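dude i think i finally got it to work??
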Amino acid sequence: MGRHFKAIDLFSGAGGLHIGFERAGYDIRLCVDNDSLVERTHRRNFPNIPFIKEDIRKLTSDEIRKYLDGDEVDIVIGGPPCQGFSTIGKRVSSDPKVRAEHDPRNELVVTYAKLIRELQPKFIVMENVKGILTMKDGIYLTTALEELKNAGYDTDYRLINMADYGVPQIRERVIIIGNRMGIHVTFPKADHSDHPEDGLPCWVPCWDAIKDLVGLKDMPEFNHVALKHTDKIIARYRMIPEGGRLPEDLLPPELYRKNFGNTYKRLNRKRPALTMVPGNDAFPIHPELDRSLTVREAARIQTFPDEMIFEGNRRQQGHQVGNAVPPLFSEKLARFLLPQLEKASEEEENERN
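look at this
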């Protein structure tokens, strides 16, 4: 497992990233997030890991160093969110580059890079939604990479499907890895596949994660509470085949409405789940039952351990689960980086001697 490399998790959310890194043997010194509900979830589940509830634009590297006990930080994990912020858009300029400069999301990236420059971790790991590749014509991603380069880091990114790493969910996310050690940036190889000819184990079906919860009564203390759907919604659900979506053109008049969106999709027991993002406060529909998934079922599909309890009301719990990095993937990523950190630390030590 190697030495206990010291890690800091910025934008920690429900802890999907740092759970995996801790399992891989890293020493999580600090988590930071500006969400009060995340703080409650953190303090309940990770009482031994210090937590700062603060906007990183108000956080200094000196405050962070107080939690390092004089040690250097080896790796900073977490990613500035690129969703959920208002944009100024055309009120500033028709030039997308000019608009990007005035985007609050870029301010977060600039602040993040400033902290990286001051803390000088050996490695960084950032995670973000797929939309970062195209948002503002890719300027948000370009800004992030340029800021990290200016801070002294070689970086690269990949669009990764979590199903390729054994997560029972088709979930594409952008992973950025960087280091200041001159090590060529690489990414862990997939260990599952949807193509038998690849010679890898098949994608993990969602049913493996949730089938034992069928028939379980509501357990609020376990985050397992079924939504109480209206009769009309249940009637729609009954029309959805396993692995399919609502046949809108076949709906009787009494069940029709405009704009159904993506909430009327049923999971397939033999396939990974759809992405766990709670649309309209509802996860996708259970493969067998005529209801949306519970928070616990979604957490299982996200590979959270059962002992992890999410605070807040159902909607708030769901958003914490849906926004997280699957711990199974983060653990594999953390283990992949261990030999590189070992090598970098040895070289750094040799230079000092």
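DSSP finds eleven helices and seven strands in the chain.
im so relieved honestly
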